[in-house]
Amino acid sequence: MLLCVAAGLVYAGALYLHDRFNRTYGTALAWILGALRFTGIFLLAFFLLKPLLRLTSHDVQKPILVVAVDNSQSLVLSADSARFRNGTFAGSLQQLISQFGDGYEVMTYEFGESVNEGLDSLNFEDKVSDISGLADDLYNRLNGRNLGAVILASDGLYNRGSNPVQAFQKLKVPVYTLALGDTTVRRDVLIADAAHNRLAYLGNKFPVEITVQARRTSGATLNLTVSGKKGNLFSETIQVNGSSFSKTTTVLIEAEETGIQRYTIQVTPVQGEVTLLNNRKDIFVDVLDTRQKVLIAGASPHPDMGAIADALRSQESYQVESVLASEAESNTAAYSLIVCHQLPAANGLGMPLIRDALSRNIPVLFVWGAQTDYQAFNDLQTGFALEGYSGSLTDMKGVWSEGFSLFNTDEQTRDMFPSLPPLSVPFGDFSFSPGASAALMRQVGSIKTQTPLIAFNKLQDNKVGLVSGEGLWRWKLLSYAQFESHEPFTQFVTKSVQYLASREDKSFFRVNGDNDFDENENIIFSAELYNESYEPLNDREVSMVITNENGDAYNYTFSAVNGQYRLDAGQLPVGNYRYTAKASNGVQEMTVNGQFSVSPLLLESLNTVADHILMNQIAQENGGQMVLPDQMSTLPEQIAQAKTIRPMSFENTKLNDLIDYKWLLVIIIAMFGLEWLLRKRAGTY
What we know:
Layout: H1 2-16, H2 27-47, E1 52-61, E2 64-70, H3 82-85, H4 88-99, E3 105-111, E4 115-117, H5 131-142, E5 147-154, H6 164-169, E6 175-179, E7 188-196, E8 199-201, E9 205-215, E10 221-228, E11 231-239, E12 244-254, E13 259-267, E14 280-288, E15 292-298, H7 303-313, E16 318-324, E17 337-341, H8 351-359, E18 364-367, H9 374-379, E19 384-387, E20 393-400, H10 411-416, E21 423-426, E22 429-432, E23 437-444, E24 447-459, E25 462-467, H11 472-483, H12 487-501, E26 509-512, E27 516-518, E28 524-529, E29 543-547, E30 553-557, E31 559-561, E32 564-568, E33 575-584, E34 589-599, H13 612-621, E35 626-627, H14 635-641, E36 648-657, H15 662-681
Parallel strand pairs: 2-3, 2-5, 5-6, 6-35, 8-14, 15-16, 15-17, 17-18, 18-25, 27-34
Antiparallel strand pairs: 1-36, 3-4, 7-9, 9-12, 10-11, 10-13, 13-14, 19-22, 20-21, 20-23, 23-24, 24-25, 26-28, 28-32, 29-30, 29-33, 31-32, 33-34
Helix pairs in contact: 1-2, 2-15, 7-11, 7-12, 11-12
């Protein structure tokens, strides 16, 4: 800057310090002209240095108060329901909000199935209450802002999400709870639970475990019934003995008809019940007409065959037969999968069975062993081969292959393999096709090799699997010893069989969607449409007709979204539905039929006794206080006294190039222009 001053002085002095040309400025005008020239030259030189201007501003942000109200159904099922139904509570809440004045920014939310801003949709009809979901939502919305406190108005009953006490701690602000609802245990009889399988198979009996609870109804006689399409299926008289009574009954129901079947469970009400909504529960079971048949054929009796059979029999979807190859019929048409243990064996044992299965594109899982005829196996051209087998076996452990993606297993199952005993693997030159996918790799000592222990391969339209050693029965025993459960071993066997036995869908028109929805869920389906070359089509009309139990039909049209078709039919009443979807790929008209059910959601009616202990715990653990509705007016004073709920001042600093301000250029031009005018007026150049 000193050089800039010097430049201005040199220019001004050279022009006006000594009048060498006898110009008639006069002393006063010379000083004025010198000052203008000095200032202009100084500013020009100064701006060449690219000076920066530091701007600092202060923003004051009011503390944010969040008022969140439980919009779930349990509030209007309590003895105190009138104040919620007639709007008394909503009026009291608005009066409370107005008491906070202009010193706070008040934000209101209602929560239940979801979190919504504002209280305009407050109707206490949500069938789910998720208090921890509210905490998560507030954290995502307000993290980084001046959140001062949360006022939580609820009865403390939640049936979705995690424990709300810990959920609110991440907000790091006081939580004041407004304890709503009634803590009095009132007379109530309810179906607390009805545990059942989603699937059953035609002709089988499936269990339904029904839990009946009764509160303050000691001495009452109840009648529990289960009914279906053909009328009453089960009836039982229950005698209540105690003010808090619970009884669990297991009912066996025979699956007599395929499709989604609706069964109604009811218990007779008693006089003076708080609600009758929970005296009835509808369940839906999808009855299938077939199970996948699996044949396990062995060269000789072996415990591996029993271990595989036990794992599959634990799943209702499989019907398992275990035979010796010498007794097995060569016709495999009735089976979905053939497990060949040490087959083919010597003298061609098992070859007719295997060749028939492969010719019918029936998947085969091979288990190698000492009795396997490897030359005959190599002739099958499965993508796996063993050369140079001399009759000796070697022990090989297995480790999960990280790149395997044909099916998913949980972490516990993947982690169990290194601790399991080795399989007895035939010693020889093992080769496999590049397209084979290895689930387990062989491990020698601590070294993981690139040779599969268990792998799968595709043969055009068929699949084959290979367990390259015997000893699976030891895996079953050791997995139980390690986890006190056969589940990890069972999961791996059933996942492997499920992958092999599953058939690829080669249809040109496919409709995907759940077969069971809750009554608060939107009915959503997706569809795929292909031409004869299996190229996706996205410009055709795809329609669906949904028909309810009364025969009423509703027409819908799919929307094309990201290369697929999507249909959102909204929410439908509880019941069974059938659908027919139609589309054309330009060559043929195609139809897909299916069915689904809409199940009632009665979570809010299972417990109508408010949990004020939880509400108090939420407040105490998060630095707030719990108040009852008649103490609501004390909340503004409590919040005003809290030292942490204060406005926050934010200092914002930024740097701007001074040369960017155009008015400075105007000043410089104006100074040089004024100097020129004054010189002209003085009669000189």
